[in-house]
Amino acid sequence: MHSLRKKQPKSPVLAAALLVLSLSGCQFAASGQNAQGVRLYDQGQYSAALQQFQQAIASDPKNPDSYYNLAATTHRLGKERNDRALMDQAESLYNQCLDLQPAHVDCHRGLAVLLVETDRPDRAFALLRNWATSQPQLADARIELARMYQEFGEGETAQKFLEDAIHQDGNNARAWLALGQIRESAGDYQQALQDYQRSYDLNSMQPQVAERIAAMNRQIVSGVGGVTASGTRLAQQSAADVSKGRY
């Protein structure tokens, strides 16, 4: 995600979980419609994707991923068209998703982004704080709250929430990755490298983290600090898709 403070964030990516086919009946139909909608979304055919996600909800009204996908696509269209009515509709859909699945990470993130984009950052922070308070056992809630604080320039507070997340779940690759980013930005390169390595050990399907580890090792050997172009790429890409294990 690009900076919530200075740039327009990327629209939330579509939930990967819905690509897993359900067992049978209405759930099976909804899964296929969601999968087709994801393909259309990836091709930039947002209106066509919207129709698929609407059909998925009609097939299985209890599937939170369908509501998330419809919300994310409506959100994208609302931003592109500068249409407040669509943004309001997306907000309602995000909330419906959370009614069905209160711990839905992508819906929390998408709704928080929308609230910031519509000049309600206080409500975005309140949303994530309430989530962290109501489900204290979830590391993801603290990771998302840390993301918000980091985006608004409060790195020390973000680090505190990430340390809390790791205390809850020491095997959370996203939390270690996020902590590494914050420590790197603060100039603590040796500790950041250890955090990145820990994240990669927990989830080796993170090529951008492997690149960052290699780049930092070269920097440390040469005695050069700072964030390279690959570091910027890591920060942007890793924030984009939690469903793929990225911060």
Detail the topology: elements first, then pairings.
Elements: H1 25-42, H2 46-59, H3 64-81, H4 84-100, H5 105-117, H6 121-134, H7 139-151, H8 155-168, H9 173-185, H10 189-202, H11 207-222, H12 229-238
Helix pairs in contact: 1-2, 1-3, 2-3, 3-4, 3-5, 4-5, 5-6, 6-7, 7-8, 7-9, 8-9, 9-10, 10-11, 11-12
Organism: Rosistilla carotiformis
Signal peptide: 1-29
Protein name: Photosystem I assembly protein Ycf3
Instruction: Show unreliable segments.
Output: 1-13, 15-24, 226-246
β-strand percent reads under 5%
The major pleated sheet works out as: none
CATH first level of the largest domain: Mainly Alpha
What is the terminal-to-terminal distance? Answer: 9 Å
Note the overall shape.
globular
How many domains make up the coordinates? 2
What is the helix fraction of residues, given as a range? over 70%
Which structural class is indicated by helix and strand composition?
mainly alpha
Number of DSSP helices?
12
Q: State mean pLDDT (0 to 100 scale).
A: 83
**CATH topology value of the largest domain:** Serine Threonine Protein Phosphatase 5, Tetratricopeptide repeat
Q: In CATH, what is the homologous superfamily of the largest domain?
A: Tetratricopeptide repeat domain
Signal peptide: 1-29
Domain Tetratricopeptide repeat protein 21A/21B C-terminal ARM: 83-214
Pfam families: ARM_TT21_C, TPR_11
Keywords: Repeat, Signal, TPR repeat
